[in-house]
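User: Could you go from structure to sequence for me? I need the amino acid at each position, not a summary. Structure tokens:
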């Protein structure tokens, strides 16, 4: 029963609030070709300030339309945007890792990140811009 509640919550959020609900979903969420493209398209900057290579204005718009529903409230264990303590270990992994996990999805012990935030219509660049925006808002500077 405990595993059913998070799964049901995720399904409800996916349908209602993770963006792209009014757009048709692709037939397959992640296939081998997509993973190969993602690996090639991931931004290679990992140094501090690497988010400067991204369009933060576009990232904010993508964040507000697709990411804020989870990252604004910490739903499904998502680190809240602006919470340096929640983001610091993630930021240390580097932008390449953060963007890659955001594009292909990631499941941890107490949290999960659906691929492209549940919106398959987002481009890899849009996801990278949104991640860079969240990092810029969550860095201790």
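Assistant: Here is the amino acid at each position, in order:
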């Amino acid at each position: 029963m405990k595993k059913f509640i998070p799964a049901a919550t995720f399904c409800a959020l996916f349908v209602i609030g993770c963006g792209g609900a009014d757009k048709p979903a692709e037939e397959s969420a992640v296939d081998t070709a997509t993973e190969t493209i993602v690996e090639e398209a991931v931004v290679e900057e990992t140094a501090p300030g690497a988010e400067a290579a991204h369009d933060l204005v576009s990232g904010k718009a993508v964040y507000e339309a697709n990411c804020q529903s989870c990252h604004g409230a910490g739903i499904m264990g998502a680190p809240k945007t602006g919470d340096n303590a929640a983001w610091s270990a993630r930021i240390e992994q580097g932008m390449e890792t953060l963007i890659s996990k955001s594009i292909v999805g990631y499941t941890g012990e107490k949290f999960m990140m659906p691929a492209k935030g549940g919106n398959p219509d987002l481009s890899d660049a849009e996801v990278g811009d949104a991640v860079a925006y969240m990092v810029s808002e969550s860095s201790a500077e």
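One structural detail worth keeping in mind: The chain is about 50% helix and 5% strand.
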